[in-house]
Structure formats: C-alpha cells, structure tokens
Amino acid sequence: MEAGRLDQVVEKEIYVSVGPQHSGAGHFRMVLKLDGDIIVDVIPDPGFVHRSVEKIAENMLYVQIVPLVEKVTHVDASNLAMGYVRAVEELSGIQVPERAKYLRTIACELSRITSHLYFFGIFGIFLNHSTMFMWSFGDRDLFLDLTQLLTGTRIAHSYILAGGVRHDMPQDFPDKAMKVLDYFERKLEDYYKIFMLNPVMIERTRGVGVLSREDAIRLGATGPVLRASGVRYDTRKDDPYAAYDKIDFEIPVYKEGDSYARVMVRFREMQESVKIIRQALRDMPEGPVRPKRMVPRWPVKKGEHYARVEAARGELGYYIISDGKAKPYRLKMSSPSFRNLLILKHLLRGETLADMPAIYMSLDYWAPEADR
Amino acid sequence: MNPVKAFIDSVKSMIVGFKYLFTVPRMTLKFPEQKMVLPPGYRGQHYLEMDKCTGCSICAMSCPPRAITMVKRDPTPRNKRGLFPLINFNYCIYCGYCVLFCPFDALHELDIHDLAVYDRDKLIHPPEFLQKVKENPEILYEYSGMNVIRTPRWKEEYAEPVFTRRGVKHEPIRK
Amino acid sequence: MMDVAGLIIRIVKYLIYDLTHMGPVFKAVIFPGLAFVFILAIVLVWLERKMAAKVQMRIGPLYAGGPEGILQPIADFIKFAFKELIIPDQADKLLFIALPIVSLVVAMAPIAFMPYSRYMIISPNPYGLLFAMAFVTLFPLIILLTGWASNSKYAFIGGIRAAYQQIGYELPMWFSALGVALASRSFDFVKIVESQQPLWFALTQPLGALAFFIAMVAEMGRIPFDIPEAEQEIAAGWFVEYTGIMFGIYMVSAMLMKLYVLSLLFTVMYLGGWLPGWGLPEAWTFVKAFIVMFLIMFFRAVFPRTRIKTFVNMAWDKLLPLSIINLLIVFALTFTGFYGGVQP
Hints:
The complex is a heterotrimer.
Chain A: H1 6-10, E1 13-18, E2 29-35, E3 38-45, H2 53-57, H3 62-72, H4 77-92, H5 98-126, H6 130-151, E4 160-161, E5 164-165, H7 173-196, H8 199-205, H9 213-218, H10 223-228, H11 235-238, H12 259-283, E6 303-311, E7 314-322, E8 330-334, H13 336-348, H14 356-362, H15 367-371
Chain B: H1 3-22, E1 34-35, E2 46-48, H2 58-62, E3 68-72, E4 83-88, H3 97-101, E5 107-109, E6 124-125, H4 127-132, H5 138-144, H6 147-150, E7 157-158, E8 163-164, E9 167-168
Chain C: H1 2-20, H2 24-29, H3 34-55, H4 72-82, H5 93-108, H6 128-150, H7 153-184, H8 189-194, H9 201-204, H10 206-220, H11 231-234, H12 244-270, H13 281-302, H14 308-336
C-alpha cells in the first residue's frame, strides 16, 4: 500500500514540528522528538523574527532607539523603554523630576498588567479555555485605553524619555484609572473562580513542568518563572528604579515551581500592580515632569553602563557603550525571554505532548524579544 | 485530587459562567458603526502649519524610521530656504517625535487613524496636503480613494465611552 | 405507458397520504428525520456561538442575516462548499474521500431508532438501544481511520488519541446503558421510557447517569474532552488535512450530529423521554434534549481541555467503578420489584 507506509509507523521516535505556523506556538519553532507520547528531546529553533535591533541601534540617535526597543515587546512597551532610558540616564547623570518618576511607575505597571493579561489570554487559549482568552483581551483593552489617555497611544508609547516623561497626565486620568482599577479588582475574583479554581485547569498545570529552585538558579531563569520556583528576586525591590523604592508592595513567591505556580505568580503580580498604581496616584507630588525644552540630542557622556529593570517577563538588561557621539557605539539587550528559552528545553524533556502547551506558554515566551 | 472538591469547584466555575450569561455587559465595539472617542493628545495623522515652519529639519532628523523628507517649495519670509517636511505614512510609526521636538510648533497631530489605501503612493503626503488636512479631514479619504468605502452604509455613531459615570463600560449594571 | 403514469399517480397519492398522516416517509424526511435535524443543527451552531459570546462579553454572529445573525451557520457552510478541495499527495485517496460521507451516515444512523414519543419513531425496533449504541461506538473507528488515511503525523496522533479515549469511556458507557436495560427489562426505547413512569432513571440510577453523561461528553469530543482534535498540541488533530466541503461534513457529523444523537439518547435513557406525557409528548422530549445539549455546549465556555492521560485514568478509576456499582444496585433492586410493573 502506497499511502500510509508502514515504515513511518514502525519508527520508534517521530519528530513533530511545532511552529511557526502551528497554532501551538508563536513566531517560534520547536521540533519535538516523541517516543509514543513522551517528549524525548526538544530542538528549539528561534530566530524567525530577528530584527537586528542591536545593530540598527548603532545607526540611530539615542532618542530614536526608544521606539525601536519598544517594538521588540510591544505588549510591554513602557518597561522596555524604561530599561533603556535608565541605562542612558545613569550613564550620563541626567536628573529626573520627582513627579516624572511616579508617572514612569504608573506607565510601567500599566504595561505590566497589559502584558500579564495578554499572557492570561494566550495561556487560556492554549488550554482551550476560550472564555479566559476573551475576558483577558477585553479587559486588556481597558488598560490600553488608560495607556492611551496617559501616553497618547495604545501600544508603543515612547512615553519615557531621558530627563522625564513626554507629558504630564491629563486632569481626568486619576479618576478614570480608579474606575478601571476598581472594576479590575472585582473582575480578578471571577478570573480566579473560572480559571484558577477550575479543576480541569488545575489538573493540567499542577505538577507539570516542575522547575526546582536549584535548576532555576543554575539555568538562569528570570522574572515570574524564577519567583514561581521559590526565589525572592525582583529588580524593583533589589535595585529600585523610578519610584519603586517609595512604594509599598509585595513580591509574590511560590515554592512549587510548576506551571500553576507560574500562572499564580502572574495573577498575584497583577493584584500588586493595581496596588502600586493606586499608591503612585495617591502619593504623586506636584511639579514639572520634564525639562522645559525637549531636544532630540541627548547629552550622553562617554563611557559604558549596564542597567536593568523588571519587565513583565523578567529581568531585562541594557548594556550601552558610548563614545560621546550622537549615536551609541554598541547597545546590547539582555532579554528575559531568551534566558527562559533554555529552561524550555529542560522542562519539556520527559513530559507528554499534551503538557507541551501548558509548559511552553507558562514561560510567557515572547519570540521577538528573544530574537531581537 | 479529591473528586468531591473537584466537582464543587467545577460547579463554582459554571456558576460564574451562568452569571455572565444573564448579566451581559458587552465589551465589543462595532467598529464601522460605532467609533471610539479618542482622548486629546492621541497620536494620529499629522498636520502642518506651513506659515510657522522654518525648515530647520529637526523633525526629519529626529524621525526614527526616517519617514520625513524635507522638500523644496516656494520660500517664505520665515522659511528662507523653502524646505518643508513631506511625510511618508508607509513608514511612520506615530511616535510623535516630530511634533514633540518641533521648536516652532508647526507640526501637530489629529485623532485620525484609519488611513487604509489601495495605492501605497497615496500615503506619501506632501506639505501642502498636510496643511489642508486640519480644516478638512475628508480630503484624506478623497485623496486615498477610500471615500467610496466611507459612504455611510451604516449610520455612524460615537460609541458609549468606556469610562462612564457608574464605572467602566464592561461592568454589569447593578440594580 | 399508462402503467407508469398510474404508478406515479399512486406514488404521489401515497406520499400525500403519508405526509398528511405522519407515515414513515414523513418521519424519515421531516419530523424526527432529516429536515428537522438540519434545521436544529443550524440553530445549535448559532446558539452555541451566541451563548459563548454572551459568557465572554462579546456579541457573536450578527451580520450574516436574520435576527441576531441566525443565518451564520448557512453562510459558513456556503463558504466551506466553495473552498478548494485539497487531497494530500501522501493520503490514501479512496479512504480520504469516502470517510467524511461514511462518518455522516454513521453519526446520523442512530436517529432512526430514537423515539420522540410512543409513535414518533422512524424505525421501531425491539433492540433499538443496542443498535443506537453500536453506531455510536463506531465513530471513534472512523476517527482512527481518518488519521490513518490522512497520512499526517498530527492526524495520526489525533486518531490514536481517539482510540485511547474510547478505551477509557466505552466500558462505563455500556455498563451504564446495561443498567438501564436491566431496569426496564428491554432494549426497546419505548419500553425504556415507559418503565421510568413514576421516577426517571436519572433519579433512581444517579451513579449510572453521571458515568454515562461524562462518557457521553467524551464520546462527543466536546470540551473538556476534545482530546483528539487538540488544536494547540496537534494542530486540528484527526481532520487537520481536510478542507472545504469535506471539512464541513466532518464538522456537521462529528460536532453536531453526535451532540444531538447522544443528548437525545441521554434524554430517553435517563430523563424519561416524553414523560409525563400529557400535552404534546414530542415537545417534552425535545425540551429535555435541548436542555442537555445546552448544558454540554455551555461547558465550552467554562472548561479547558483535559489530558488524555488524566481522562483515561479517570475513566478506569472512577467511571468504571461507578457504572459497575450502579449495575449491581440495579441488579439488586430488580429483585425487590423496585422498578415496578416488570417482575423478574
């Protein structure tokens, strides 16, 4: 019989390609080597959305790099910009007004919530829970509206610039933000009941893809993945920037290290972000938010500097080498998604094919961020 | 997992679902019929005040995707060299740097964002055109040939704003 | 020539008589049969989407025509009909083309034995339950064959998963059905319904009903048990290679007909069919079956997908003991004359 050749079936191990046009992967491909239903090996194949950000940045003014790095993770734009601007500011000693710091904190936390909601939507649909997908994306829209009110656009804000922020918040922003936050806190309870408490979801994620504390540290996990493995490490606390040192918030840490813990860490982080935005709006001092005249040429001093921030996916680092000219000599991005890619290989081995979406997505892998 | 607890939790999840089946806040925006009310400061289509422009080219210099080209036009007393920005909206990322860094406030942003065209060349907007957009945004659609589509098939209306007096649009109305 | 004309006239006369007096042709073509089922299918697809949309705070189908976009399923089907048919080079061509049609036949066959009331039944049969269950059992085989004929890894994994799943739910399903047959002392649907006279079997055999219900949802391949077509793991599983109208037929047979047939089966077996029987008995059956269908469609909005491993474990650890215990209880109760009327 020509069709359905037997030799394909007799093979003990088969290779199944997941991605980039598969519904179970983003702009990312991995080849799974399966023995029956067990994943024996994973061959990740990143690089489909490589945009050569680091090289392009060498030919751009410092200010032009802000939208460039934001595009890498457009769901998490403000955090990406924050890291870059922090590196530039600390390199050249640019002072930031106090009010601008609070506005930056708000922008970063809005960004984090939108990014986590995006995660919840995708994670929900990866487990075939379409309600979670729709709810998350619908509620994400509220935060995009808030961001639009604050920064002037929904994604790719370019709001955080060296020396402050682009402009002050509108008069009605605190009022509207409170409305959204009140609604969102109530809605999170429904999220919890329909998704986190759902026995089918718990059955699929608890005890799946367990990353021990030692492995997490050894393999260089960051962000929620690291915190779900019981390591209390968050750049916002350990190396504070913006106004995080003046704000009281907690870092959710879970010990289990499985997919469920990673989801719960993000869930609790959203609750913390709501608290942070509330506090920032309450404590915000009056004053200027930027130098009077914004100029396209930033006064960057000669030297090298590394700065890091806590993006939604983990610790994000920028290393800048400046030779004192208008454009950087070298810009290196150390993105959290790429660091979590190694863990994917470690986690998937020995699990079944059905666990692949729950593990892969719980890392919140963002392909353009890893490829850069 | 304890099957009794699992059963109770499934019922809990289903009750939440049932709750949403009957209290129905809809978050969908029926786009061509309803339009979102955009806040002031929204970064959309640009317009240019040619009498304010001095041709200093800071907008072209600061444009990250290099969408702005300075083109020669008749010199004005303010603009001796006669250089004015031409914006190629194929490239524009709406970062708003040209507006932010313009020392003479010649460039501004409008809340127009639906810039679909049939022909890519129609997205290259010369300075005279950029000047006219402010008074009459309809010329955008005439120029791009999209006014055919914009003939009102549906009655256009502005959507109920997301932030209402009672909270946000997504919330069910409490009795 | 006269004979032919006379024959045609006689046939037409018979048809008119048949259709006006609810004869077999009327039953097969109109009411419990084809026309009714296809109209119901359209309403079901629309209802499922609308209901999911409500829970998810969306609007759902709206623009396709009719009130609230009720013609959307027809629009979808027209779209499927006009799409290009692609038959993979490596596929087993004959099987690949034949299987969707076979699947539709197999999925719809049990409708012939399902009673809507004492008389509203296409093919009255003393072994109706056995026939219906036999056809229901046949479907996973088609899934397995489809996976084989497509000659694609994803489809093949999907087919194997369907086979595994069947290993899990088949026994509980049959044991539960056996409880019903034992309690009513018959495989005849009419007798099964009649013997639920004071109390439904769902009340007298709750364990069996629960086991049958879960097994039934798994058999339908609906969320949370849509394991063979797991889109996020194996693309679309067993029908990944199908396009156009063949895909449309699979959607109708696998998604809708099985939903309808099994919900009706559950209604007849456990929810007392047309009982209490006054008024329009067909309406009772329909309303009960509709509520069951609605409940199962509602699962889509609140549950994610389970894993094959857990499902098979659950089926053997929980469902099978449940159904066997149920069978033993029924067995004991029959001697006490609890299931009235019929004595052992």
